[in-house]
Structures are given as structure tokens and as C-alpha cells.
Amino acid sequence: MPWTLTLHAEAGYIETAYTGQLTPAELQASVQENLRVARHENLYRFLSDCSTLQGGHSILDLYAVTDQLDALRGVSAREALLMPQLEAIQKDVRFWEDACVNRGFAVRVFRAREHALDWLLDPKPVD
Q1: Residues 6 or more apart in contact with residue 102 via CB below 8 angstroms
Q2: Partners of 13 in the β-ladder
Q3: CA–CA distance, 38 with 47 (Å, rounded to integer)
Q4: How far is it, in rounded angstroms, from Cα 30 to Cα 33?
Q5: pTM for this entry
Q6: Which CATH superfamily is domain 3-120 in?
Q7: Which residues contact 11 (CB under 8 A, 6 or more apart)?
Q8: How far is 46 from 5, CA to CA, in rounded Å?
Q9: 8 vs 5: CA distance, rounded Å
Q10: Per-residue pLDDT tens for 52-98?
């Protein structure tokens, strides 16, 4: 499976690491599982590690998945994305960030894990 979900309950976030090729069905499954765990744990901070992601899905697949994010309306959710090393995939991660922000969600891309976690776990509301 090209993604793994890890619950960091004590630290206060859910981490999903994406590796290799991620099919549209696997993308859908990862988002559904993140939402399921978030609801179960009442925890809405997400770290998506895309550093070793290589593709396999399209921008249209990403756009289709944003509809599932409506489940997060009314909760204080954040997602920090770690930028892929593969330059060709970086545009997809930027697209995800833009699509989510345009829907009113707090999503930000980072190159360093430390900076991503600092922002993700900051208790202050996102502007």
C-alpha cells in the first residue's frame, strides 16, 4: 500500500505518509481513512508526508477528493503537507493546497518536517 496512517494522539495529529505511485482509488481510501480516524479521535490536525510520493493520480483526481473535505466543516482542522522530492509531483501538492484553501481550509506546504509540525501544532487560530 502506498500510504500509511499513523495516529500521534499524544502529540495531537494524524500523519499519513505517501510513497511511490498512488492510484485514484488509493487516494480516495487514504482521505476516507483520515476522516474516519479524525472523527473517531476528535483530532483534526493532519500531517501529509508527500516527500517520497511519485504520482499515479491526476489533478482531476485530487479535485474530486476535495468534496470529501466538506465533512470537516465546522471543526478547526489543519493540514501540513511535506513537499515531494520529485519536482514533477510538486505541482500536484501545490494544487491540493490551493484547492483546499479556496474551499476555506487551513492547508500549507512545507519543505521541512520541523516547520510543518510547528505550524500544524500551533494552538493559535489560523488567519
Answers
A1: none
A2: 8
A3: 12
A4: 5
A5: 0.92
A6: STAS domain (3.30.750.24)
A7: 121
A8: 10
A9: 10
A10: 999 888 888 898 888 888 888 888 899 999 999 988 889 989 999 99
pLDDT band at residue 126 using 50, 70 and 90 as cut-offs: confident
Strands, E, within 12-62: which ranges?
A: 13-21, 45-55
Per-residue confidence at 25, pLDDT binned at 50, 70, 90? very high
pLDDT at 67: 85
Alpha carbon separation from 95 to 8, 59, 83, 90, 99 (Å, rounded): 27, 7, 12, 9, 6
Q: Phi and psi at residue 38, in whole multiples of 5°?
A: -60, -45
Phi, psi of 103 (to 5 degrees): -90, 0
Return the sign of the alpha-carbon dihedral for residues 60, 46, 35, 98.
Answer: negative
Q: What are phi and psi of 84, to 5 degrees?
A: -65, 150
Q: Which residue has the cell 483546499?
A: 100
